[in-house]
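Morning run. Coffee first, then this:
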Amino acid sequence: MNEVVVMGVGTLRFGRWPNKSVMEMAEVPIEAALKDSGIPFKDIQAAYIGSELGHFPDARMIVQNFGWTGIPISQMQQACASGSAAFREAFYSVASGRYDVVLVAGYEKMGKGLIPGGVPEQDKEYHLHYMGLDVTPARIAMAIKRRMLTYGDTLEMLAAEAAQCFEYGPLNQYAHNQKRYTMADVLESPMICSPLTLLMSCPISDGAAAAIICSKKKARQFGAGRAITVAVSVAGTPDYNDLVGGPGPHIGGDFKGGKLTSRVSKEAYEKSGIGPRDIKVVQCHAPFAGGGAICIEALGYCEEGEGGKWFLEGKTRIDGQVAVNTDGGLIARGHPLGATGVAEIGELVRQLRGEGGALQIPNNPKVAMAHNTGLGCINLHILKK
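And here it is:
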């Protein structure tokens, strides 16, 4: 297997772009990633594009907007994890030696309203969806309620997680929400689905992100001084045991501790020889407050039922035991489905390079983790200097 590095990253600010086409949206981060990498588009040998709601003609136009060079173009669809799935396939295409230099991009233009729970629109017999019981917040709210009964999680713990996101969002130029909210603001915001309030929920966003990856050997031709190594990329889908107890808050597995995330992260630790103690910055897929708490439990940072306390006590802050969602996470940064997984890579690359600006974690982190799920499926990447 070839060693794989990230050479360049780029992000379009998440938010609402009603006057931009998906091609115009994606052009911004791809151009930025190419410039950041020092690699011209003519040297790109393949492209992997992530989008849940887009179509392959969009992916083709996005790439061919930079040149009709005849390269293979693949589009990945994996709900919220579409972008990280594209990154995963791009990683393996370079690690296997099939290509030397690859473009990864994720994009999405989102409509208004709540996201369905994953049932095909044509399934008219699925009555829970049409009664409003299978929209995403309802699923998550039920899982969080069970945690509150089982572990004693409190509303203050949920509010602390959301408030941390809103503290970092205004310091991130790419974040959808640029306004700071306190715990009191979070608790007093309108109820969406008890116990989740509006400010405990991620916004529906438009956005795009990109990365250029290549083999470490090839990177030397372009100057690899700022290259970040992909130590491992793993993926998984739920098995029966993962789902016992009902789906957890978009991290895979049951309401207690995210069995799927735990299982896949252990695989990543074993393959890379890297463990939670080595990883000081984590991007968790947490579209609702409580998801980050369960994520850090499942990743091995604390015991089951302790994640909420970690947020309340500040252990997940930039200067805490593990810095979680340093860019504001999905709650403040926003969540354009196909772009999210690639944006996570961009944030971690900037952190490992020491280019995090006001959000840079201290002591020069050397290892970082990106965790991204979509309808239970998971892609997990560990990056290192």
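The longest helix spans residues 337-353. Good start to the day.
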